[in-house]
Each structure stands twice: as C-alpha cells, then as structure tokens.
Amino acid sequence: MSAPPRFTGMPLDRASSRRSDPEWVAELGGAPERRAVVAGPDSVVVDRSGEALLRVPVTRPEILLGLEEGVPLFAVELDGDAPAGGRAVSLREAGAMLPQSEGGLAAYAVALLNWHRRHRYCANCGHPSEVVEAGYMRSCPNCGASHFPRTDPVVIMLVEHEGSLLLGRRAGWPRGRLSVLAGFVSPGETLEEAVVREVREESGIIARNPVYVASQPWPFPASLMLGFNTTSDGGDPVARDGELEEVGWFSLSRVQAAARHEGDFALPPPVSIARFLIDRWLARR
Ligand SMILES: [Zn+2]
Question: What pLDDT score was predicted for residue 60?
Fold first, then answer.
C-alpha cells in the first residue's frame, strides 16, 4: 500500500493540557536544553544533511510546538538569512526531501506561525491580542475574547466513471499539469455536500457517494485537505465557474502514462494529497 501523505505524522507531544498552567509555561523559558525550528510563511530551515529541520538555541521562547523526547521545541520566525548550519527551502521542497515525521513537523511549524502572523489583532474588537498557552491561543486584553488556531477545510476528490478520472487544470498552473478537483468547504455545509457542490460548479458533473480516504495538513497558509473518492454517471465536463481552464475525462492508460512521465500531460507532484489519491487509484487497477 502507498506511504501516508506528506506533511503528516508530526511526532511531538503537543503538551495540550499542560499549556494552560502558566507556571509550567514560565519554566519552559528557562529550560537550558530548549531548542527551536525556524520557519517563514512558506519555508523552513533544514540542516546540512537535508534530512532534518535545523534545531537552534532559542532566545525568545514564545510559540511552543511541543516536547521532543521531553525537551521543549519552539518555532521562531525566519528573519532574513537562514541561521548558521542551515539553509532555507520551500515547504513543498521540504515535504519532498525530508523523512515523514520531519515533514509533518515542518507543516505544523509553518501552520502555527502563519496563524500568529495573520491574527495579531482581536477579530472581535481590533485591539492587539497576546499569545497565551505557549502559542495555542491568543487572548484580547481589551474585550477578553479568546482566539484559537484555525484550520480551513478543503475537500479534494477523485471522480471516476468507467475507469476514467475527471481531471482539470487551474489557471496559473504549469502548462500541461492536471489534477483532481478541490475547493473550500462553505459555512453550513457537510464535507460530502461540499464534494458534490464543487464538482458540479467546476465541471457540471454530478459526483455520487463521496467516501473519505485520508487528510493532509496543507499550510498554504492554513488548510486541511480532506481527500474523497466518488463515482459518477459520466457526462461531458465543462469548465464553468472560471477556476478551471480545462477539465475532462482521462482514461486509465493515459493516467498511467502520465505517472511514468510518458504521457501528454503531467500529474501533480508526489508531495500533494492529489497525487496520493491518484497513485492509490492506479495501485488498485
Ligand atoms: Zn478584543
């Protein structure tokens, strides 16, 4: 069976229950062995081996990722050049090159820092908010509102009809790249309803019987991809809502050729859950 999706398998103890103890949090700042990983909005710093994130001494312990074999591990902003002994790579590169657990840690650090970066002000009253619970919450000193890290759900779905897959190309993607369809879940909607709506809006095709397969953190900047398999009665797909430049049915043999880099189009890179769903479908044929 195929390996789990990249950006999953984060290995730290998140210390969720202990974060609410201010004394415990205060003691963390004095832990001499504490370390941090370094991340930007879409990048992380890896060590010279390229097989792990760089751990650096931390001077401003604020955003605690968790405990790594009992040792506090924080996240700090990449500010300018990478620190000595490391180099900055994009999060997509990191997902492709790092072992599973370090890739999961990279996605987690970027996601948590992205939330703090984009939520410095209280969404209720506009006053600057403060970090509490060692980074798992922000609190407003003006109105008392509490704010928690958010994750935006996105459904992504494989649609099959008689051995062919529904694939589309978004405007702005590399030429020749095709993938399965995806879209944000709307308020007041179940995941299954979102799957059916997105496929209909983007292609005019009616998807049936969505079955959940797997999920993947996708912090660009704060999504959680929720992968589904569906079937369809077929029909002529038409790109309708302006998001897709092209959409159509692609036979098993054409998808197999694309997976071997011998086809007339390109599949999404292995780092994505889109490719995970397609590879899983191919493996079952
Ligand atoms: Zn407020």
Answer: 83
Distance in Å, CA 126 to ligand 1 centroid? 6
Ligand 1 center from residue 187 Cα (angstroms): 23
Task: Using the mean position of ligand 1's atoms as its centre, give its distance from the Cα of residue 131 in Å.
Answer: 13
DSSP calls for the chain? -PPPPTT----SB--TTGGG-HHHHHHHTT-TT-EEEEEETTEEEEETTSSSBPPEE-SS---EEEEETTEEEEEEE--SSPPTTEEEEEHHHHHHHS-HHHHHHHHHHHHHHHHHHH--B-TTT-PBPEEEGGGTEEE-TTT--EE----EEEEEEEEEETTEEEEEEETTSPTTB-B-EEEEPPTT--HHHHHHHHHHHHHS--EEEEEEEEEEEETTTTEEEEEEEEEE--------SSSEEEEEEEEHHHHHHHHTT-SSSBPPPTTSHHHHHHHHHHHT-
Cα of 130 to ligand 1 centre, how many Å?
Answer: 10
Segment 261-276, tens digit of pLDDT: 999 999 999 999 999 9
Residues 121-128 have a mean pLDDT of 98
| Distance between Cα 123 and ligand 1 center (Å) | 7
Mean pLDDT of 182-194: 98
